[in-house]
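Progress against Task 2.4 (sequence-to-structure conversion) is shown through the following example record, which the project officer requested during the mid-term review.
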Amino acid sequence: MYNTIKTELALWLGISKDALHIHLGLAIFAILIVLLRRSPGSLIPWLGVLAFELINEAMDIFHWHEGAFSFEVGDSFKDLVSTMFWPTVVMLGVRIAAVRAGRARPA
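Structure tokens generated for the chain above:
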């Protein structure tokens, strides 16, 4: 059922499941920044995206399929990289900019 929801969402948005990972990773990152009132350079929102993605991939790897428990690694590494790429770029970019400006790392 979980995979069906992701597939339907991707179809509804007119994007691939790979693009869905990219968009959701950045959206979750932005939402966590706002909700937690943290800088984009903070490790906390980034770790939140990572936790979400690891749970997502665990659900993809260990799933119930056609009445049986299934183990399927598939594209998990690619999905992890796709989801974490832009949050990582933003976080590192803010941290590098802060260091170059002579400020401490963002909280």
